[in-house]
Amino acid sequence: MSPATGTPPDTGTGHAPRHHGELLQGVFRDTEGRRCAGLVTLPLPGPGSTATFRRRPGTPPEALTVTPADRTKAARAAALAVTACAARRGLPPCGGELGLSGSVPVGLGMGSSTSDVIAAVRAVAAAHGLRLAPGAVARLAVRAERASDPLMLDGRPVLFAQREGRVLEVLGRALPPLLVVGCALGGGAPVDTLALPVREATEADVREYERLRGLLRRAVATGDAPLLGEVATASARRGQEALGHAEFGTLTALARRLGALGVQIAHSGAVAGVLLDPTAAGDPRARVHDCLRALSAHGIPATRVFTTLPTPKESPHGPARRGRDRQARPHTPRRPARLSAL
Fold this sequence. Notes:
Elements: E1 11-29, E2 35-56, E3 64-67, H1 72-89, E4 95-102, H2 112-127, H3 134-145, E5 158-161, E6 166-170, E7 179-184, H4 203-222, H5 225-243, H6 248-258, E8 262-265, E9 271-276, H7 284-297, E10 302-307
Parallel strand pairs: 3-4
Antiparallel strand pairs: 1-2, 2-4, 5-6, 7-9, 7-10, 8-9
C-alpha cells in the first residue's frame, strides 16, 4: 500500500485489463511441494473494466450500491476493500456508490468478473487516497470471487495460483512473439464453469503439468514460440476433457494444416486462438487471411486478431474512461457473450 496523506478525495477510479484464456492450466507443486491449482494467462491488449467509487461518509458500510446491479462479485470486492482501506486510513468504514463499465464479454473465459473485481478494488482504494500493492489486490479478489486471474500484475508471464491469489513462479520478462487469431467455440455461447465436471488430479497428471511448466519456462526464457505453441496445445487438449467443445478437433487440424504454432483456449470458457509466428517468412497478413478463411469454412466464428508484441504500457490503475467504454447506468447489461465475426 502506498502511504496515505491528506484528506481522502471521496471519489476514485480504477481500471483492470482482460485476457484471452490460458496458455497453461493445471495442478502444480509450490516451493514446499504442496499441490495447488495454477494457470498462465494470455494477455489481450485493450481496455477491460473501469470502475468509479464514491464514498458516502457517515453512512453504514452495508449501504453500498453497484451499477449495473448484477455485478455482485464486484460489489463484494468493494465492500471488502472499503473495510481494508478505511482501517488503513484510520477512518470508519462507510457506504458508497460503485459504477462499472467495460467491454469484456461474459462467459467466454476472458476474465470479465476478475476485471470488474480488480477495477472495483482499485477505485475504492483511490477514493481513500490509497494505492494497493498487487498482492493485496489479489487477496481481496480471491476473497470476493473464490478464484482470480492474475490481471492485477504487471503483465509478465507468471504461473498464478488462482484460488490462493499468489504467484507460484515468474516465468520470464515477456512471452515470445505470437500472432493470435481469436475465435469462439460452441458458437460463442457462455460456459457455466460451475456445471463442468471436476476430476481430481492424479500424480501422473501433476507430473505432466510440471513437465509442461518446465517447457513453458524454457520457451519464455529462450523466446521459443514453437515450443510455447506445443505447451498451449497440450494444455488445451487436456482442458477439453472437461469442456468437450465439438469443434476442438477441427480447430487443431486446421492449425496443423496452416502450419500454425498451435492453439490455446480458455479453460473456463469458449474463447480460443490459433497461434501464428509473426516472425516467419512471408506476409503475416496473408497467413491471417488464410486462417480467417479456414475458420469461416468450418463455421467457427472469428473474433479478433492480436499479438503479444510490446505495446505502450498503461497505468495499472487506468483512467476513468478509455476508448468506447460507456458510463454505467441502471440495468446496463454486459456486452453479450456471442461475438460477431471479423
